Amino acid sequence: MITFYYHPSPNPAKVALLLEETGLAYKMVPVDTRKGEQHTAEFLAVNPNGKTPAIVDGDTTVFDSNAILLYLAEKSGQFLADNTPQRRGEMLSWLMFIATGIGPYTGQYVHFNHFAPDPKAYAVNRYEFEAWRHWNIIEQQLAKQPYMLGEHYSLVDMAVWGWARVLPFALGENAFAKLPNVKRLLDTINARPAAQRAEALKTQHQFKTEMDDDARKAMFPQNERLKG
């Protein structure tokens, strides 16, 4: 059975969806990041980067959400691109685009817009621009076809879904008015029973929601350096 280290945030959500879609047996282990549980020695032994998600599958440990998606899709033989070099190249390109672009720029925009201390105008401007630039590329891809890789639902769509769920908070309440095809994909996936089960995982543990001083220390340890 796969051990799945989970927190109800965008990157673990992708993995939860793929686990539910494939039917692979797993047990969820909550990691409450606002309580600092990602910094414990036990979790760092699983993921030395101290981030969720991570999985342990027998003797195999995988961390970083898109690496986990690829591992699980290959393990199950489901939700992959057609087995040709051209299609695999397309799949890997979009999967890494989400890993290196969508996640980091959206996450950094959320951080600087909602949580960072002033002055922050330069950072907010940069990350807002880059977050929107990346999401507009996804929008253009989805304007051409139902799913990221064409006619068939894949792990790439699941990677998009993890972050698309939080776009009104991340990019503003009008985000979907500007990204109608992203919204279409989100609604399509949300209607799937596996997505509903993945979303329900967050109700299995009482995760801390307050962003108090202790949570800020756990989430943004770099800020302690500013106090000197």
Tell me what you see in this structure:
- It is a single chain.
- This protein has 228 residues and is an alpha+beta fold.
- It folds into two domains: 108 residues, Glutaredoxin, CATH 3.40.30.10; 107 residues, Glutathione S-transferase Yfyf (Class Pi), Chain A, domain 2, CATH 1.20.1050.10.
- It has eleven helices and four strands.
- A four-stranded mixed beta sheet has the order 2-1-3-4, covered by helices on one side.
- Strand 1, helix 1 and strand 2 form a beta-alpha-beta unit.
- Helix 1 packs across helix 10, helix 4 runs parallel beside helix 6 and helix 6 packs across helix 9.
- The protein is globular.
- The N and C termini lie far apart (47 Å).
- InterPro entries: Glutathione-S-Trfase_C-like (IPR010987), Glutathione-S-Trfase_C_sf (IPR036282), Glutathione_S-Trfase (IPR040079), Glutathione_S-Trfase_N (IPR004045), GST_C (IPR004046), Thioredoxin-like_sf (IPR036249).
- This is Glutathione S-transferase N-terminal domain-containing protein.
- It holds the Pfam family GST_N.
Sum this structure up briefly.
By secondary structure, the protein is of the alpha+beta class. Helices cover 57% and strands 8% of the residues. It has a four-stranded mixed β-sheet, with helices on one face.
| Outline type | globular
Helical content stands at 55-70%
* Biggest sheet features: 4 strands, mixed
CATH level-four homologous superfamily name of the largest domain? Glutaredoxin
**Helix-strand makeup class:** alpha+beta
Secondary-structure element string: EHEHEEHHHHHHHHH
Top-tier CATH class of the largest domain:
Alpha Beta
Q: How many H/I helical runs?
A: 11
Across the major sheet, the strand order is 2-1-3-4
